[in-house]
Each structure stands twice: as C-alpha cells, then as structure tokens.
Fold this sequence. Notes:
With 392 residues, the protein is mainly α. The protein has a domain at 196-301. The protein has helices spanning 35-49, 61-70, 72-82, 100-121, 125-142, 147-164, 173-189, 194-216, 220-226, 232-239, 243-267, 288-294, 297-328, 340-343; strands at 353-357, 360-364. Strand 1 and strand 2 form a beta hairpin.
Amino acid sequence: xxxxxxxxxxxxxxxxxxxxxxxxxxxxxxxxxxxxxxxxxxxxxxxxxxxxxxxxxxxxxxxxxxxxxxxxxxxxxxxxxxxxxxxxxxxxxxxxxxxxxxxxxxxxxxxxxxxxxxxxxxxxxxxxxxxxxxxxxxxxxxxxxxxxxxxxxxxxxxxxxxxxxxxxxxxxxxxxxxxxxxxxxxxxxxxxxxxxxxxxxxxxxxxxxxxxxxxxxxxxxxxxxxxxxxxxxxxxxxxxxxxxxxxxxxxxxxxxxxxxxxxxxxxxxxxxxxxxxxxxxxxxxxxxxxxxxxxxxxxxxxxxxxxxxxxxxxxxxxxxxxxxxxxxxxxxxxxxxxxxxxxxxxxxxxxxxxxxxxxxxxxxxxxxxxxxxxxxxxxxxxxxxxxxxxxx
Length: 392
C-alpha cells in the first residue's frame, strides 16, 4: 500500500503578460521629408563633430565661438530639417540615459542660442530673428515626444528667447513683424499635449515591464540599486510575494499607468487652473513607490507644455506690439486683433494680461497658480505671474 505524503502543493506556474513590447530603435532616413529624421541625423553629426563637448555643461566665450564653427555642418542640417513638417517617431525609452542624438541636439540648441546672442550684440537682427525662429520650430516639434524630449524642446525655446527677448525694443519694424509672424505660425500649429502624454504613457509601461522582468528573473537587487532608497521598501515587498500575488501587484501598477495616462490626456484639454489632480484609487496600494518613480513624467510634461505656450505667446505679443510702436510710435490698446492661439493664457483660458500707454506696453500671464498678481514675478520670471525675459 502506497504512502500518501501530506503538505502544501506548490503553486502552479504563473504566466506573466507582456506589459510593454520590445521596440526596435528608430532608424532615421536621410531625405525622408520628415523633420524628425533630420533632427536625429543632425544630433548624431553634432556628437561626431564635437564628441568631448557634447557632455559638457559650461563653455567660455572663446570655447563657444570655436564650437559654433565646428558645429557648422550639423547646424546647417538642423536648419534644413526645421523647414520640413515633423512627424515625431517616438520609441518608448528603455532607461533614463538620453539617446546620442538627443545629446547632440541639446548641444545644437546651445549653439543656436549663442548665435542669437552674438547677432544681438552686433545689432545683426536678421540672423538673430532667423535662428530664433529655427529654434522655435525645433523646440515645438520636440515637445511632441515625451517628458524628456519636451524638456529638450523647452530648452531650445528658453535659451533663444532669453537671448533675444530683452532686446525687443531695439528690433526694427520689419524684423519685429517677421518675428511675430513666425511665432504666430508656430503657435497655430501647436496642439494640446495629448500626443506627448500618450507617448509618456508608453514609457510608464516600460517601467512596469522593467519591474516585472526583475521579479521574473529574480534580479530585484538591480532595482534596489538603481531606483534609489525611496523605492527599496516596495522592492522588498515585491520580493516576498508569490508569483500569483506578484502578478496582481504588477497588474495594479499597470492599471494605474493606464488610468493616469487617460486622466492626464483629458486634463491637457483644459486650462491649467481647471485641472484636477490625479488621485489613485488606493493611497496605500503596495506599488505606490514604483508609481511615484515611474509615473511623474506626465505631470512634468504638462508643466513644460504650459510654460512653453505661455512664454511663447508673451514673446509673440511683445513682437507684435513692438512692430506697432516701431511703425507708428504707439502700442496697440488691446489684444483683440490677435488670434486665440496668440492671445490666450494657457493657465486660465482668458486673454493674457496686457496694458498699453503711448509707446509703452506690458504683458504677462497669471502663471501656474491661475491667480492674477498684477504681473509680480520672481527672478525666474515664472512665479507667481509669468513674464517675458527682460520685462521684470
């Protein structure tokens, strides 16, 4: 007679789903007619031409001049690409390290701003305006990627605007009008951040897949080392789960990523002051530390988008008013003649604050808090109200 042994039966194998499919890196095609391909190729060329400088963050005046000359071919390629329509070929990020082309494009953004600074210093207004408009085409195209690429695009806008905006009062009427017209075209083509938020949602799912792979391959120590101290309790918790419980944990993390993406896309259609904050279904969910690490990019992306729109609209309003002053000696009385894509404040959905008296004019945005503080702002020009550089 056989002996029946007691005890717990082992848990049957658990099949983990694919939370984010593997994606091949994008292969740009020269001459495709897509500006994005040109940006990628120009960025790679910049790294090739200046490999040492591509990772530096500070440059002296003479270093800047030599670097701009060395980047001449890459800058020319960037300028040519900026004339094309852009279809952002997004590929979800597999980590936090910027891609090589992004490193190169960031270097090109600095070089463009240095060109604008030098042209302004020499009173050479045509190239100053021309390169500023190139930067605003590239910058807004990059806003269509994800949070990281939006930050890269915003740097293009911020650097060149800061180089030219303080000198708006010196712009001759033809160049002020050219600047306004170019900015108005770019603003007209900018939509909401919904597409970029969809891309960022894919990056969130890559984070979920990273956690799932670490659990499945028993390499959770790698997460503990790379994600930082704040996430370690969640890593330890996940390590102690059975496969079926881990699947429930990961599915909850995935569902939160999907819910936050949908929530943020809906929020992007509203002025900032009308948006609600995303509230997860369970504040004490065991995966909350992973969510805090992987799911904050979409919130950052909305802030970047709002700020880029607000300050570019202020820039356009300044160029428009300067044109009138240069031609007739008097600033426009109000923003009524301008299209909504130029005159509306993204933070409250109303017209930008604007006053004028004779040749003097002033414009500002109510800023991220949605409250009008009479144009009061700090050294950054961003809070509480948002103002254009050079108007503090």
